[in-house]
Amino acid sequence: MAPEVSLEPTGTPTSNTAEAKTRFNAALDEAKAGAAALKAEATTRATAYKAQAKGKSHDLMGDAKAYGADAKIKAADLAGEAKVKAGDLAVEGKAKASDAISGLGKMVADNAGLIDDKLGAKYGDYARSASRSLQDTAAKLDAKTVDELSEDARAMVRKSPAAAVGIAAVIGFMFARLFSGSKD
């Protein structure tokens, strides 16, 4: 606290100057003490806020890591499910393709007699040969697994890549024609 100020004249001008200096120095000391106290309080609060922020950041980092781990697990599960579903669809597609080829072979065989009558025995024999070939292809398709078929396809692409590109282009063209609507 500041010393009491007297409003009475003290008598000498030097004593007034001395008293003013004393009061000024006391006020400076009080201001310095107040600034030091504010600095100490600000340092304490800053340290507390820093610790609090560091704790929150560790908590958030832990949460983020947990969410990341959960996402990896879910992605792995979904990838596994997709692989199983794709495998099931491939097996189903292989069965349908085999049945279609077998049915086509049977239809050609059934019509071979009619071809004999209409076009001659030579063309009937061609039809029977094509029918056997289709039946053999269907049987081979049934006998192989999807993995074996995909490995055969890879080997065919390695052996003759130009033919593979041509086949892919023809299939792509067919799908484009199949799925494109008329512009009219």
From TrEMBL:
Transmembrane segments: 162-180
Protein name, per record: DUF883 domain-containing protein
Gene3D superfamilies: Apolipoprotein
Comp. bias intervals (Polar residues): 9-19
Region (Disordered): 1-21
Sorted UniProt keywords: Membrane, Transmembrane, Transmembrane helix
